[in-house]
């Protein structure tokens, strides 16, 4: 579905990504790992059209999307859920969700809302509540719910477990597994190496703007270099 080839990208004169190759196939969970500042967000922001790459190609279902307007990329079915809690705090849960489907008709919006509320019953109980008053975990669910409202086929999740309690982290990973089993392809950007490798099919490790390691998640979980760098043993 998603193919990134020889991607070079950065900010002004600074090149952050220095030739990155990465792919996500239909039905896959692919983990993108890497330490702080490795370039994970830069990769996401270029894939989702927020920035125009310096070079290389990005295709989604065979269509070139590098530098395309974000709206067109979302319409094609590639949706990024931003890191942390970037919901609109002064809008209600319902309004936040409906924004995810604002380009669809009323009927599609209602159908999508029904689907998202079935996935997140907690949001259903809080539809009229202002998003800014939700707990951190609920805001994270809302951000993912809003992404689902756009009818994605590939969802990019940027650190969905960030700031969650251990129990909610478990729940979040279980949810990601469920969404994937329902047919969604997922690019999972995470610092939580052990749990990400446990649910991913494949993984890439980004270091200093280059892919340092890649392969089947189960094999990477045993990789001595990865264990040493990210798990300390
Ligand atoms: P983290 O896990 O900490 O979020 P990351 O892997 O997502 O890190 P990026 O956010 O992609 O890393 O940052 C990669 C490099 O690009 C960093 O050195 C960062 O300072 C730099 N950078 C990020 N955004 C900008 C920007 N808007 N302007 C200039 N430099 C930037």
From TrEMBL:
GO terms for biological process: L-amino acid transport. InterPro entries: AAA+_ATPase, ABC_transporter-like_ATP-bd, ABC_transporter-like_CS, BCAA_Transport_ATP-bd_LivF, P-loop_NTPase. The keyword Ligase does not apply. Keywords: Amino-acid transport, ATP-binding, Nucleotide-binding, Transport. SUPFAM superfamilies: P-loop containing nucleoside triphosphate hydrolases (SSF52540). CDD domains: ABC_TM1139_LivF_branched. GO terms for molecular function: ATP binding; ATP hydrolysis activity; branched-chain amino acid transmembrane transporter activity. Residues 2-233 form the ABC transporter domain. Belongs to the ABC transporter superfamily. This is ABC transporter ATP-binding protein. The lineage of its organism: Bacteria, Pseudomonadati, Pseudomonadota, Alphaproteobacteria, Hyphomicrobiales.
């Amino acid at each position: 579905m998603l193919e990134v080839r020889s991607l070079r990208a950065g900010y002004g004169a600074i090149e952050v990504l220095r030739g990155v190759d990465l792919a996500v196939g239909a039905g896959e969970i692919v983990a993108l790992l890497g330490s702080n500042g490795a370039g994970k967000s830069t990769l996401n922001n270029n894939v989702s059209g927020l920035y125009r790459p310096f070079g290389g190609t990005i295709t989604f279902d065979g269509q070139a999307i590098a530098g395309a307007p974000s709206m067109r990329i979302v319409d094609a079915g590639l949706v990024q859920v931003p890191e942390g809690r970037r919901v609109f705090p002064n809008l209600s849960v319902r309004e936040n969700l409906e924004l995810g489907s604002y380009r669809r008709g009323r009927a599609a919006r209602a159908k999508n809302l029904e689907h998202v509320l079935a996935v997140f019953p907690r949001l259903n109980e809080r539809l009229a509540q202002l998003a800014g008053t939700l707990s951190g975990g609920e805001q994270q669910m809302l951000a993912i719910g809003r992404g689902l409202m756009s009818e994605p086929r590939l969802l990019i999740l940027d650190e969905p477990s960030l700031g969650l309690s251990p129990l909610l982290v478990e729940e979040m990973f279980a949810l990601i597994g469920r969404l994937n089993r329902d047919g969604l392809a997922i690019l999972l950007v995470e610092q939580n190496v052990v749990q990400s490798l446990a649910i991913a099919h494949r993984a890439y490790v980004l270091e200093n703007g280059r892919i340092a390691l890649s392969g089947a998640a189960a094999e990477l979980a045993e990789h001595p270099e990865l264990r040493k760098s990210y798990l300390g043993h």
